[in-house]
Write a structure and sequence with these properties.
Pfam families: CN_hydrolase. The chain is α/β, with parallel strands linked by helices and 264 residues long. The chain is built from nine helices and 14 strands. The structure holds the ligand NC(=O)CCC(=O)C(=O)O.
């Protein structure tokens, strides 16, 4: 399965340019043979949270139309990163996923809002899971800060995901956390992790380092610190091999730790 990771630079608040740029990169990834294409977080507006009233995609219509059309025309699965959306009860950070027949298979709004980037002041949190099917691939998608919550990714793995997609705008100062957390999520869940971060100039502090990690924890590909489009082949059969070799799903003792109430 060929995965096209689009480590994109988006322009702050420049929605028109960002849609055009994302479309061009998706077309290029498909031309290079990608079967699944993945975008980063909030690529339509960037983190222009103060301007969401003008910039956010109303009910996600523009994004859905674009991804629907491209996935069908190019016959590719698209994990559409995320975009800022304006819904009736506020703004959300939303990921749309389409299969290669142009059908929407996932719609997810970021569940854990990241206070350090003021998300909690401007956005509403989603509360639904994001488990979906891309052809034969049992997959799930989460957004950036969500990876700090192992129980959330575990819930998706327990629901059958073997490939976990992560779209992000993860800044340079904590890039070591990004790498370590992603590797841990891959190993503990025995899943592939396909994680696509944004890139920006040095002043804006985003240095890419998107990653594809095997369920054994081996890193198959790391992005550099420039805008980049990579098409990487992955062999999904290793998931079942590793799960048979170390059967953590059978060895779990959920009665000891699920539903534990933490008191402060
Ligand atoms: N956009 C985000 O959710 C950033 C998360 C982040 O930087 C972190 O350290 O966590």
């Amino acid at each position: 399965m060929k995965i096209g990771c689009i480590q994109m630079n988006m322009r702050f608040g420049k929605v028109e340019e960002n849609y055009a740029h994302a479309e061009a990169l998706i077309r290029e990834a498909a031309a290079q043979g990608a079967e699944v294409i993945v975008l980063p977080e909030m690529w339509n507006s960037g983190y222009a949270l103060e301007q969401l009233d003008e910039l956010a995609d109303v009910q996600g219509e523009r994004t859905q139309e674009l991804l629907q059309q491209l996935s069908q025309e190019l016959s590719v699965h698209i994990v559409g990163g995320s975009v800022s959306t304006k819904q009736q009860d506020g703004f959300y950070n939303t990921m749309y996923t389409y299969n290669n027949a142009g059908e929407k298979v996932g719609e997810y709004s970021k569940v854990h809002l990241f206070r350090l980037m003021d998300e909690h002041l401007h956005l509403q949190a989603g509360s639904d899971m994001n488990r979906f099917q891309l052809g034969d691939i049992e997959a799930a998608g989460v957004i950036c800060y969500d990876i700090r919550f192992p129980e959330w990714l575990r819930a998706h793995a327990l629901a059958g995901a073997k490939v976990l997609f992560v779209s992000a705008q993860w800044p340079t100062p904590r890039i070591d956390h990004w790498k370590t957390l992603l590797q841990a999520r891959a190993i503990e869940n025995q899943c592939f992790i396909i994680a696509v971060n944004r890139i920006a100039n040095k002043k804006q502090n985003f240095n890419g380092q998107s990653m594809i990690i095997e369920p054994w924890g081996d890193i198959l590909w790391t992005g550099n610190d420039e805008e980049e489009l990579a098409v990487v082949d992955i062999d999904l059969s290793v998931v079942d091999e590793i799960r048979t070799r170390i059967p953590v799903y059978d060895d779990r003792r959920p009665n000891l730790y699920d539903g534990v109430v933490v008191t402060k």
